[in-house]
Known about the structure:
The structure holds 2 protein chains of 2 kinds. By secondary structure, chain A is an alpha/beta fold. Chain A folds into 2 domains: 19-162, Rossmann fold, CATH 3.40.50.11890; 187-196 and 227-385, Rossmann fold (3-Layer(aba) Sandwich). Chain A is 52% helix and 11% strand. Chain A contains 17 helices and 8 strands. The radius of gyration of chain A is 20 Å and the shape is globular. The relative contact order of chain A is 0.13. The mean pLDDT of chain A is 94. Chain B is of the alpha/beta class. Chain B is 41% helix and 21% strand. Chain B contains 8 helices and 9 strands. Chain B has helices spanning 36-51, 80-91, 132-141, 148-153, 166-178, 183-205, 221-231, 244-260, and strands at residues 3-9, 13-20, 23-31, 58-64, 76-77, 97-101, 106-111, 117-122, 211-214. In chain B, α6 packs across α7 (221-231). The two termini of chain B are 13 Å apart. The mean pLDDT of chain B is 92. Chains A and B meet through α17 of A and α2 and β8 of B.
Amino acid sequence: MGDKQSTISDIVKNYYNNYGLRAKELKGEGKQFIGYVCSLVPLEIITASGCIPFRVRGSVYEPITRGDTLLETIVCPYYRSVFDLSVKGKYDFLSGMVIPHGCDSMVRSFSAWSYGLPFSYFHFVNIPSVCDESSFEFFDSELGAFKKSLEKFTGKAITEEHLRQAIRVHNENRDKVRALYELRKTDPPLISGTELTMTLTAGSSLPIEESNDLFDQVLTGVKGRKNSLPQKGPRIFIDGACLDNIELIKLVEELGGNVVADTICNGARDHLPKTDVGGDSIEALSRRYLGKVNCPKTYRANKAGTFEGDIANRFGDIGTYAREFKADGAILYVYKYCDPFGFEVPARKAYYHSLNLPLLHLEDIYSAGTMGQLRTRVQAFLEMIG
Amino acid sequence: MSFVLGIDIGSAQSKGVILGDQGSLGSFECASGGDFKLTAEKIREELLSQAERSVDDISRTVATGYGSKLVIFADEIKSDIVCLAKGVSSLLPSVRTAIDIGDLYTKVLRTDGHGNVHSFILSGKCAGGSGRILQVIARVLQVKVDEIGELSLKSKKRVEFNTGCAVFAETEAISRLSQEVAKEDLLAGLHRALAAQINSLAERLGVEQDVAMVGGGARDIGLIRAVKEIRGHDILVPPHPHMIAALGAALIARESLTIQD
């Protein structure tokens, strides 16, 4: 491992641990960062407006305190943690906040965000709950409204050319993420799940061009390694919502497994689907965010007519990834009170059964304190499939 | 002649088994206490003395359980799920589903009869539905925990016990006692509440017969009867059900010796 490799790994760790570091620097230079949660906010529109999208994170190490005085505990602990850090001022360098209809908690808490935080711009993106032709028509005009709200905020028009340029640079970012994922296909993988998730998380705090540079450097660094860091072990697929803290992935890898693929929001769900180019940009974004981002919050009608056919349609991406990355087992990791995933657990279990892929279902509360309890389960699971 | 140890450091009780070529040469159980390292040492000493052997005679030690990391002399650490499957399959090869009633968790696992695990599930993060509730109730009723089973079988009157929570169970038990509910009726009610939780966990995993119950809680014949009643089929219980994980650990230790040879 050369000096260059350790340098880039230190840069990633630094951005991961001091999340928002670069945003604070650039704010000093007059840049405006717009915070967002979830995989469903069309980041290209923010980029096209001249602002910089910034994914706000929670912390599994920080007890939720002030947030719980403004949000009830029926909200999932991940989202409560994100809110708690925000009201404690961690993200005060942001100029605005965009929240999509990613789950019931996001809709219902939007007013709490807009009253509780000092930003000058707030916007709620109404994502349709179903995925029909009429939903796309609605979503097209909803994205038009989002665009207008940003134009009003910045005082500058967003042209079709701005949007095309933003789509291009965000698609480049997704190509790079795809290239990072390709490094996981060997056995053992060339990049650990911990490193990869840290890299993607660091990237989501940077301007998209800097994120592209960072991913390029990580790609070069990993390819230049003399010895592959991970050792052989059971190849694990992680299915779940947003794992913006690496603790679970790290735990799997400490216990001898390798996390090789996922559906997580700050992983494959968010970073792999690309936006189509060539047509109308708003329509293309609407197709990507509603049609291609496979989130359990969207109801997709049962076109197969059978339960087996329906789960194969809804969760087909899991099977594709599991085969592509040769997963030996899967962990379905669900936060307590996560309604979109919670409702799907039995159907997802049935789908894993149909794939003949061993599954460990974990319910967690977004706290580093539960890692000991998870350790028992993960260790037994790895021994079971190993 | 080779000797192996299996040591299971549980959250409440710690267990150990020593195996020779011909089978078990001794077993030992004690409270885990506050110093797991010391407890592990004590178990080893006791097992060696039962088998009349010295530390140097032991070819391999496998540790399992909540405190397994603190068995510093162990050659390998294995999860208790894997050890339980190995242990139960060696004694009851027809078993396909094993229910382990531990102090902290209840665990249900599916096995193929050769000690391989197909799937498993653990009870929630609190001690609800685990063996801890039996200890709590024993203290409230001022009876010994190993007397609970026999006593509950004497129940004449059906009492509904509503909670499976180890904390609220104490409150509920005290309020029932103040209503002059008999101890045996209260215990039988608690066993039914616990059995319902255990059954629900097992159903979530899926049950294939034969079914065995193991772990410290499986020494409670009242609980076994309640689980049998709710499931409507027989439940097998191996001798010394609390020793199964330690036995499994020892068997794994012996297997890896054979592989190394």
